[in-house]
Amino acid sequence: MFLKYDIKVRIGQKEASFGKGVIELMEGVERTGSLSAAYKAMNMSSSKAWKIIQRAQQDLGIVLFESKSGGSDGGHTIITAQGKELMRKYRSMMLEIERQAEISFQKYFTE
């Protein structure tokens, strides 16, 4: 029998509002400079993307993105300094959790 595991970690103040979905959106914005391109690449609707972003921002009390609307050179979105710092900490925490989870998984589920 081949077993595998999955870990889902979300953080927040009042609710667990910041996790993989928000991180993936942020990574997409880093790559493309566009929130629209980021959620489309994830096959996510605009309304869902805005919902999870607004929920995370409200719960955490920080702004994750700054957007500039259209104009001659088009619009773009950037991640705020606070957003980048939160991403860095979350990624580091997840690496640590995943390393420990793999050790524990091997200990209990491999022959």
Write the layout of secondary structure elements.
Blueprint: H1 20-32, H2 35-41, H3 46-60, E1 65-68, E2 76-79, H4 81-109
Antiparallel strand pairs: 1-2
Helix pairs in contact: 1-2
Write up this protein.
With 111 residues, the chain is mostly helical. Helices cover 58% and strands 7% of the residues. It has helices at residues 20-32, 35-41, 46-60, 81-109; strands spanning 65-68, 76-79. Strands 1-2 form a two-stranded antiparallel sheet. A hairpin with a 7-residue loop joins strand 1 and strand 2. The longest helix has 29 residues, at 81-109. The radius of gyration is 17 Å and the shape is elongated. The chain starts with 19 loop residues before the first helix and ends with a helix.
What is the helix tally?
4
> Order of helices and strands, N to C?
HHHEEH
Q: What is the arithmetic mean of pLDDT?
A: 93
| Rg from Cα | 17 Å
Strand order of the largest sheet: 1-2
Q: State the low-pLDDT regions, or none.
A: none
C-alpha geometry: elongated
Structural class designation: mainly alpha
The number of E-state strands comes to: 2
Largest sheet: 2 strands, antiparallel
Q: Beta-sheet strand percentage?
A: 5-15%
- The proportion of residues forming helix, as a percent range, comes to 55-70%
N-C termini distance: 11 Å
